[in-house]
Amino acid sequence: MRTILKNGKIYVEKNNFQEALLIEDGIIKLVGSNEELAHYRVDTAIDLEGKTVLPGFNDSHLHISGIGALMNTCNLTPAKSIDDIIQIGRDFLNANHKLIALHGRGWNQDYFTSGERRLLTRFDLDKISTEIPIVFDRVCGHVAVGNTKALEILRVDENTYVDGGTIELGEDGKPNGIFTENAIRLIQSIIPAKDDLQREREFLKACDYALSLGITSVQSCDIMDRESQCMYGIIHRIYESKKTRLRYSHQFNYQNIEDFKDYLEREHISGIYDEKFLSKGALKLFKDGSLGARTALMLNDYKDAPGTKGVAALSDEQLQNIVDLATDHGIRVVTHAIGDGAVESVINAYENTIRNGQNRGNNLRHGIVHCQISNMNQLNRIAKLNIPVMYQPIFLDYDIQIVEDRVGSELASTSYAFNTLYKLGAPISFGTDSPVEDCNPFPNIYCAVTRQRLNGSPDGGFVPDERMELEDVIDAYTIGSAFNECKENYKGRLKAGYVADLIVLDRDIFSVEPNEIKEIQVERIMVNGEFVYEK
Fold first, then answer.
1. DSSP labels for 433-457?
2. What is the pLDDT of residue 225?
3. For the whole model, what pTM was predicted?
4. Is residue 223 part of a domain?
């Protein structure tokens, strides 16, 4: 099957645009001018009518199952106060009378515009219900709050301990319902497990949504604990049956080395992967939490919370042991590190595998997810060691408001250092960490180009030297993300020999004003030479 796309503005690479491309059996055969490709015999010819064409976006870190789950849970994102959260919870319960437990996600105390701007507690959730357990996750996913009923069922008290997490105590010395990091899994265990059919429906709904936004590949963390291991079978069945055309690469999370050993003996050996549409991917670890929740691990105290340095979800020794084991088995590791203390620890762990000869030149491409708070020494080390970094520029929309308060202006000036690290030659890629943020690529691109919030502030952008050129941003979102999963030789460019994954835009991203980038939509999406979405 031969198809030609003609009369377009096709982005090939920086300073290189072409008019037409020839596709055969899902692979791009030629790219050039209309005249150069006119004499080839084809089965289908499509006139692009001057539209701009980009490679399909590749989100280098998100949670597809989480996106699907959010579509079917109590969405707390609109809440502007604790009272709003209580009302949203009550309304959800009234509309869903048969619930035996209530789960919600999306609240952010820094967005509260009335009342107290603080973390929720069990006493707030008790105002929704004391009859059923309630768990509300903060938007970052690194803090969760349970009501009194949930704590009673789990028999949580002031002596309950979870390694790599905290169960916060109130002024009375009793748990106040706030759980952080590894302790979140304890409070979330009160929520009834979904059956496989429900998980599959949510997963496919999220895949459809991602595709509609121009995302043709994802690197997704959906295996988070023993309970979620059923997702392996669900995902295998989905791809064996070709129920979605979204290319999927695992980022499976095992914080416990024994759980990781179990993976090595089971899924790693027996799982069937074609490495085109479904890939084994990487081991995903968590070193710390989030900046908004002050659980990101810092080298020094938080400026606005003296005596607080965050939470280590893994000790340095635990991190090193798991990284070494993964390296021994030739498995890539990508580690969540937001605070500069976490970033330092992860760099050290990777450098040790390189120095010990297990991972020469970081040939396994062990990477860092987020890398938000960083100093220049760390950025130079990341570049020198060739450590891929998976950034989320959209985080600036929120973090611009808090970062200087949290870490001070000096450290903030070397943080979210997209352009600096790119210019140093380090491999960077972009994603959204959805459902922490929406997975729409265009607001993400806007933030990388302007360094501004979605409302246009601040004038000139936050640390404007870190603004990136548009072509570099697109490359980070396509070929850069493909490099992160070791697939840059056949995915992420519109060149001969690459898979025909591409998107057609409703306006020219290269000529619109920067503030219009976030409004761009996708008109058509092609995966493997076939159109899978048309607006």
1. -TTSS---HHHHHHHHHH---TT-P
2. 74
3. 0.91
4. yes
